[in-house]
Amino acid sequence: MKYIGLILFFFMLVGCSEQQSLGTIKAYNGEVIREDPTDTIVMEDKEYPMRGEVGDFTVFDADFIAGKEQTHTFYIWFGNKNINKQLLQQDEIVEWNESASDEKQKALGKQINFTAIESETFEKQNIGTGIIEPLSEEKENFPLETTAAKVVTTISIPSQGVWKIEGSIDGQSIGDVTVKVN
């Protein structure tokens, strides 16, 4: 009799875990929205944790608090973001930097729109705007600094959860970063 009780208990445990693991994973445009890992920028022997991918689109790793207006600094690197910069030859790096620098120069002073997409419901909201600015005091030792720019903006994300923040200029995406909102 006690074996029957153990067997039933075992089946209940297995049944519960199967229900959890068999749940549907929703995707937004074919992508599951999960919090981005942190990356790090090292300048003047000090580390700065960032959310997103350095060399693409990042934001300082900070607390995002639901419903509260907060100022954040986003960093954008221009140029072909699908290129493996480590595999480029020296003359290709110079050419890539020149075209990326030109792209950056054209973007400076333009308005960037920030949209947030919630990971469970895919609720999409405009959360703020900002102006693309050149780097200033960060410039020294900043990775790929000739291709990088920043946007300092005040945004408010409406609720807790994992949110994907997309930046766009004139309706064209220039990057995204996914953060956890408390």
From TrEMBL:
This is Lipoprotein. It comes from the Bacteria. PROSITE patterns: PROKAR_LIPOPROTEIN.
